[in-house]
Design goal:
Shape: elongated
Order of helices and strands: HHHHHHHHHHEEEHEEHEHHHHEHEEEHH
Oligomer: single chain
Bound molecules: adenosine-5'-diphosphate, magnesium ion
Helix content: 55-70%
Mean pLDDT: 87
């Protein structure tokens, strides 16, 4: 019921259109119901008179009928065109709502869900909805009107016979209802399976370079085949269901005709029905069988639309785990002091990634995190911009708990450069400007110069207007990284996180980038995670973290003197290199 209410809410902006559509639908059904009545009146009245009088009035009758059907034409046109437009608009509203909601959802949602499936919800699940939105109410309205109208008119001819017909029709409705519930399950399954196909395609195509490098095309084909076949099976099941449904209905229609004939014969024999009226009966049955058909077909549409809408609602009802608190303040005039106070954190599993961690970083200083892969360095950094929330303890910037400030203001004070650089489709200019939408050309060029990439961009034929290719495939790793750095220069945040920003690069590119990273971290509070320890020698403090927590902290020289874990790492990396 609440699902229906929420569906109806989408009609609200188009109320005018909806009512107009219904008025047209009403007109169309009245006109359809009127014809047998007109026929009856004519055969009973005018057509029994003299030939001259008939011919005299016939022109008038024709004119009246043509006008009537012209009105019907207008209404039908409105229903088909503007009714569909209304449905499409509602569908597009829903799609926008869903997309907006996807933008609100937190990292944890994306950890759990698959992009292909989400796309499927956004695109194909909502397809049937526009059909439902428009045809649903109108079909139900027209059909019910025609069926009720036909029954009332039939009751005037012979009440008993109409009651018998009503009983058969009731059986038919019960059959439809039962069959429908089964179909609903199958259609929901259909959607899940097509989402599976989508997610396979998405996964395989975005990893196509890995697929090819391993020559694993066949493996991918097999995996795709599997989900494709699952979808096929699900479709076969739904077609079998549809077959039983439609054939069952056709059978009931046959029963209706049989009932009319047999009960008609019975009542004629009894003398309660005239033979001419039986013919009229058959004519009316034709009028209400068609809407029953329509009604039945629209239940199928209803099922499809409903299961799509339900999946849509499931996403819309997912609350983002990280959101602004009511009354959250803007984080303004940030100095850049950072403190982690007794912070514990784990992901969905029970295993703690961070356990009672304390770290203080004074504004403008650089702290380096060092430790084995999987030790929780990236996780520690993710807590600062609230990609995830701490399970206990608090992360503060300038003494303010990050959970008490707005996400927008928080995230705009933090710049992140990671190992993986995501490039959006578009030009180099677009990708740099992502750090500050609406940036001027001068600002973009200044940022590119700071990131040591300006000269390279200038050397390209199209310069800043060079397309980067999907995910930046046309650029080298170092070039992408420098564009990412330019982005952050443009953003100009008070706080900077460098998470293995140079790890994926060769020594040559690393040296290039190191200079611009140093320029970037000047006068900003910086947390740097680096693989190569040479890059963090100058940090104000180095913190060594492993799975069990903070192991050592101090300056480079102090830690080397301590001859502990850090010294071990350091010597391991530089063994044989420094002499
Ligand atoms: P590091 O950056 O030090 O290499 P991470 O912070 O990335 O380590 O990971 C710390 C631990 O948390 C690892 O055991 C990793 O498997 C786990 N982990 C990282 N990200 C997620 C995630 N999104 N969901 C669940 N577990 C995660
Ligand atoms: Mg990491």
């Amino acid at each position: 019921m609440s699902i229906l209410k929420r569906f109806i809410r989408y009609y609200k902006p188009y109320r005018g259109l909806f009512y107009a559509d219904m008025v047209c639908a009403l007109t169309v059904s009245c006109i359809d119901l009127a014809f047998p009545q007109i026929l009856k009146t004519l055969t009973g009245g005018l057509f029994t008179r003299g030939a001259e009088e008939i011919l005299h009035t016939l022109g008038l009758v024709a004119l009246g009928l043509v006008v009537m059907y012209a009105v019907r034409y207008g209404c039908q046109y409105f229903i088909t065109s503007w009714g569909h437009v209304m449905g499409a608009r509602m569908e597009s509203d829903m799609r926008q709502d869903l997309f907006d909601h996807y933008q609100r959802l937190s990292f944890s949602y994306y950890d759990r869900n698959n992009t292909g499936e989400m796309m499927s919800k956004l695109v194909s699940d909502l397809f049937d909805i526009s059909e439902l939105a428009h045809h649903g109410p109108e079909n139900i309205f027209i059909s019910l009107l025609k069926i009720c109208g036909a029954f009332v008119l039939l009751a005037f001819i012979n009440l008993n016979m109409t009651l018998i017909l009503l009983a058969v029709t009731a059986c038919m409705v019960v059959f439809c209802f039962l069959q429908n519930r089964k179909m609903q399950r199958v259609f929901m399954d259909n959607r899940k399976k097509i989402a599976g196909v989508n997610s396979r395609v998405q996964d395989s195509l975005s990893g196509i370079r890995v697929v090819k490098s391993f020559a694993n095309e066949e493996l991918e084909q097999e995996k795709f085949y599997e989900s494709n076949i699952k979808f096929l099976d699900s479709k076969v099941a739904s077609y079998k269901m549809m077959g039983a449904f439609h054939a069952g209905n056709a059978f009931f229609q046959g029963l209706l005709y049989t009932t009319v004939l047999v009960s008609g014969g019975f009542f004629i024999a009894q003398g309660t029905l005239r033979a001419e009226d039986l013919a009229l009966y058959a004519l009316y049955i034709g009028i209400f069988i068609n809407p029953i058909d329509v009604l039945i077909n629209s239940t199928e549409m209803l099922q499809k639309g409903y299961s799509g809408f339900k999946r849509f609602i499931e996403v819309i009802d997912t609350e983002p785990e990280v959101e602004d608190r009511p009354g959250a303040e803007e984080l303004r005039d940030v100095r850049g002091d950072i403190s982690y106070e007794d912070v514990s954190f784990r992901y969905d599993s029970d295993e703690a990634v961070l356990d009672h961690v304390d770290i203080d970083i004074q504004a403008g200083r650089t702290v380096a995190l060092v430790g084995p892969s999987g030790g929780g360095k990236t996780t520690l950094c993710s807590l600062l911009p609230r990609f995830y929330d701490v399970k206990s303890g608090a992360v503060r910037i300038d003494g303010k708990d990050v959970r008490d400030v707005t996400l927008k203001s928080l995230r705009s004070t933090i710049g992140i450069v990671q190992q993986d650089v995501y490039m959006f489709g578009g030009t180099i200019r677009d990708n740099i400007a992502y750090g500050k939408p609406g940036a001027t050309d001068e600002e973009i060029i200044a940022a590119a110069k700071n990131a040591n990439i300006h000269d390279f961009i200038q050397s390209l034929e199209l310069g800043y207007d060079t397309p980067v290719g999907e995910r930046g495939t046309r650029l080298s790793g170092g070039q992408k990284q420098r564009i990412a750095i330019a982005r952050v220069f443009l953003k100009n945040p008070r706080i900077l996180i460098l998470d293995e920003a140079t790890s994926a690069l060769d020594n040559e590119s690393e040296r290039h980038i190191q200079a611009s990273l140093e320029r970037l971290s000047k006068d900003r509070t910086t947390i740097v995670i680096a693989h190569r320890l040479s890059t963090i020698r100058n940090a104000d403090e180095i913190i060594v973290i492993d799975q069990s927590g903070i192991k050592e902290r101090g300056t480079h020289d102090a830690l080397l003197a301590q001859d502990g874990l850090y010294a071990k790492y350091y010597n391991m990396q530089f063994e044989g290199l420094e002499d």
